[in-house]
Task: inverse folding
């Protein structure tokens, strides 16, 4: 199994802040990495696929980068609707998720 | 519009078998563009992928579940089933039926609303 480790587990930020979440894979996974957002009571929503490919309809303040074993999700200017939990997920092997990063005030 | 709907018992006794069904509307599960997955989430915790099945019937399962899972296509009813044997309290979670794109960089693009399953005597 490929283990995915996110950091931090949680963070507090203010509206307008730049926020970066890190995801590390236990082995090389090229760019086979997706990011999801989950708000309380909702199902996860894919934000970014293939490490940096922004999904249709996702605001451009979200961006992803990385390759190999280290990946980053950045929110350039945090908005009220961005308070949520974010998960990375690798699709190099059988799927595994990071443990999640909760973003709150 | 494609929709996924999970169904099954909300309460299962320890050591028994959990059986869930996902009904797909708006598309056919034999569509080679997708695979069909089960993912679960204990209350307040993260996401755990359980298993997937492709249109041709091939499957992959999470080895951490120790061979307790079976996933199958019900082609006559456009459904995907999940069976989890010898359940314990640790299997209490919301279970999601999820569609995944079937390409080089696959991702989970469509989720059912989820069904809460509680394991308790």
Result:
């Amino acid at each position: 199994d490929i283990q995915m480790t996110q950091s931090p587990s949680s963070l507090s930020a203010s509206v307008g802040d730049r926020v970066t979440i890190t995801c590390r894979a236990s082995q090389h996974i090229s760019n086979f990495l997706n990011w999801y957002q989950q708000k309380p009571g909702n199902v996860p929503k894919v934000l970014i696929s293939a490490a940096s490919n922004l999904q249709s309809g996702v605001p451009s303040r979200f961006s992803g980068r990385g390759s190999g074993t280290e990946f980053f999700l950045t929110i350039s200017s945090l908005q009220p609707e961005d308070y949520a939990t974010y998960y990375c997920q690798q699709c190099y092997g059988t799927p595994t998720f990071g443990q999640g990063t909760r973003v709150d005030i | 519009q494609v929709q996924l709907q999970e169904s099954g018992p909300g309460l299962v006794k320890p050591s028994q078998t959990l059986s869930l069904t996902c009904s797909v509307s708006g598309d056919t599960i034999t569509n080679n563009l997708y695979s069909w997955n089960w993912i679960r989430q204990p209350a307040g915790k993260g996401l755990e992928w359980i298993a997937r099945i492709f249109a041709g019937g091939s499957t992959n399962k999470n080895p951490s579940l120790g061979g307790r899972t079976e996933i199958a296509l019900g082609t006559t009813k456009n459904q995907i089933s999940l069976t989890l044997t010898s359940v314990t309290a640790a299997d209490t979670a919301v279970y999601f039926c999820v569609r995944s794109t079937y390409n080089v960089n696959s991702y989970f693009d469509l989720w059912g609303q989820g069904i809460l399953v509680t394991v308790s005597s």
